[in-house]
């Protein structure tokens, strides 16, 4: 049977689904369907009737119009309507397109121009500005009323009435310009001018004018009249590099705005349309005419009386010009450093957009003190000790903020920043990291080493004095800066632990694993070295050094903020022990010229042939580093004592009003466990030689005298240090003290060379009792300087000191010794010498201190 013959269940036989669908509709629904079908034709008929009526009416109207009997495309009104409607569409599209290119609502609240950069100190004062920047940003209530009224009368007489664009003002300007046959009045409102200043270029095009109009209307909706006027008065260019009324008052009259007279206010207000044309310093006659016109308009608008106008118009143009304040730069080395740091914190497109305000960490008072200290040391000691450059940086060790930075002298000639760019050998200041590693491995400060002739893998370190002291503990070795013991300590703790700790504490420069690392042969810069010593001051916590606290965009919104977290680089106990040891360097060792009326810790450093003179010192609240030397790396005749005294000069000012804080107390030394694992270096060959008497004497009397003198100085320092430190070896101490006593007796019998005579003459003067700290400081500086002067010259004649570059080298024996670190007194002379020509020309100590 086929499918067509199959009956579907549930349906009547002989009918398909379509045919039976009507049969299934209930009777009531079927009736409703019929009624709706009848209503549809009637509705359609009504619509057709209405359309025909509209057509007949419109046809009748069109027929009555001119040309009604013509086709549509030949009728003028058709094309007129088409043109009007098309124009409306075109204008709407143009406005829409322009609005798309304009700043949005959130960007209208800007307060600075594009392409500007303002760098501020920690107290909000301006250090430097670049671009079209306003130095004197004034609040509206700080601007005199007459000055505000002068600008309104001159630039926008209906400023309070319009909504961004003044059609009446445009018509009046056109009429006045036609009458005078010149452009004497502009149609732009103050709001339009502000929009052009902040967001648009100065090209004279229709598109730019349309943008200006739309921006002015948007700004009027978002800002109050007072806000618009305040921004305009602070940003308008008024010639001679002056942006804003505050700058103009200074540039033309060397006054603040509240000191200006009415004619002076009118003169400044008259500059806005064309600063180059109406500049009173270039075109005084044109400036006078423009001033009088502004006074006339002020009278017409009821701002001043006729008498005031008359009096103001008769006054001559009296100028007292000054350079724009925005061209002044404070702390130029620091601001240059900040500009180089900016790309780390903001993207290139943000920098290109400009308008940034950078808030920094610099303390203006401390910055001035640092600049004065650097200038003083270069003016005085620099001439006699043959160094021509100096650098200083001060850092808050708890926050890592740079508080003062001086990168050299005379930034106009030498833009090179010796704090951040000069890589120099740190000398003995690097010993701080070597000894810190030793303490962190568990060593006791009273653990001792033998100071004796020593050669390791062909490298032979030497003390500056070229003598040996025998057994010394770590504390005394650091206090007196003994080179041989520093190398032995480095071998015991290892290269890698020492290098890692130095990097963790703040050293950024690469460090090579060589024996000379202990003596500071690897170059670093002053900023990282000072920052690393700040870790000692902060109980082992290191905070990344930085100079920027916040960066604001043109709208005054914060786009970056410093949030550096301290990291534990050295355990607190080891840090406290190192501070205790470094305090002894200042109290009884090579850094005594840095003493203050509070606890101080620090380390001196001198590289080969005194090419670099260092002192890095700290109190709990501040760490400061000083470097002295020459850019061409020439040797100096000075010593690290000069750096320490420069540190003292600055810190005396910095600590004024600063509460005295104590360093952490020294922890218990017995039973300490190390926090760093030592990785002892395994040299291929070590040669230890005993101390022989012949090594302390020489046929060259000059060399012998210098060695004995340096030995006596260092021994005196050692004896002055805490006697309890050496109680475990009294016999050795007495033996070396006896030898030093013999050296002192021999020294008094030496012949009087001019350089020794000058030294003894100064020492006799220094032996005069004095209770003032400044006289003690001068004495230490004089003694160290003189000792270094003779010693460095003689040592350069008798040996060539070289820095090892590879610890595994098999080359012939190499030697290295740091320059003088001791500033102890050398003993008095028995006769008054004849002064040399250099001594007779040198100013007295008292005069040097007074400069």
Automatic annotation (TrEMBL):
<keyword id="KW-0511">Multifunctional enzyme</keyword>
<feature type="compositionally biased region" description="Low complexity">
    <location>
        <begin position="785"/>
        <end position="794"/>
    </location>
</feature>
<dbReference type="InterPro" id="IPR001460">
    <property type="entry name" value="PCN-bd_Tpept"/>
</dbReference>
<keyword id="KW-0645">Protease</keyword>
<feature type="compositionally biased region" description="Basic and acidic residues">
    <location>
        <begin position="663"/>
        <end position="682"/>
    </location>
</feature>
<keyword id="KW-0812">Transmembrane</keyword>
<feature type="region of interest" description="Disordered">
    <location>
        <begin position="1"/>
        <end position="43"/>
    </location>
</feature>
<dbReference type="InterPro" id="IPR012338">
    <property type="entry name" value="Beta-lactam/transpept-like"/>
</dbReference>
<feature type="domain" description="Penicillin-binding protein transpeptidase">
    <location>
        <begin position="391"/>
        <end position="643"/>
    </location>
</feature>
<feature type="transmembrane region" description="Helical">
    <location>
        <begin position="77"/>
        <end position="96"/>
    </location>
</feature>
<keyword id="KW-0121">Carboxypeptidase</keyword>
<keyword id="KW-0808">Transferase</keyword>
<keyword id="KW-0328">Glycosyltransferase</keyword>
<dbReference type="InterPro" id="IPR001264">
    <property type="entry name" value="Glyco_trans_51"/>
</dbReference>
<dbReference type="Pfam" id="PF00912">
    <property type="entry name" value="Transgly"/>
</dbReference>
<feature type="domain" description="Glycosyl transferase family 51">
    <location>
        <begin position="125"/>
        <end position="299"/>
    </location>
</feature>
<dbReference type="InterPro" id="IPR036950">
    <property type="entry name" value="PBP_transglycosylase"/>
</dbReference>
<feature type="compositionally biased region" description="Low complexity">
    <location>
        <begin position="762"/>
        <end position="774"/>
    </location>
</feature>
<keyword id="KW-0378">Hydrolase</keyword>
<protein>
    <submittedName>
        <fullName>Penicillin-binding protein 1A</fullName>
    </submittedName>
</protein>
<dbReference type="Pfam" id="PF00905">
    <property type="entry name" value="Transpeptidase"/>
</dbReference>
<dbReference type="InterPro" id="IPR050396">
    <property type="entry name" value="Glycosyltr_51/Transpeptidase"/>
</dbReference>
<dbReference type="InterPro" id="IPR023346">
    <property type="entry name" value="Lysozyme-like_dom_sf"/>
</dbReference>
<feature type="region of interest" description="Disordered">
    <location>
        <begin position="662"/>
        <end position="851"/>
    </location>
</feature>
<feature type="compositionally biased region" description="Low complexity">
    <location>
        <begin position="715"/>
        <end position="725"/>
    </location>
</feature>
<feature type="compositionally biased region" description="Low complexity">
    <location>
        <begin position="806"/>
        <end position="836"/>
    </location>
</feature>
<keyword id="KW-1133">Transmembrane helix</keyword>
<keyword id="KW-0472">Membrane</keyword>
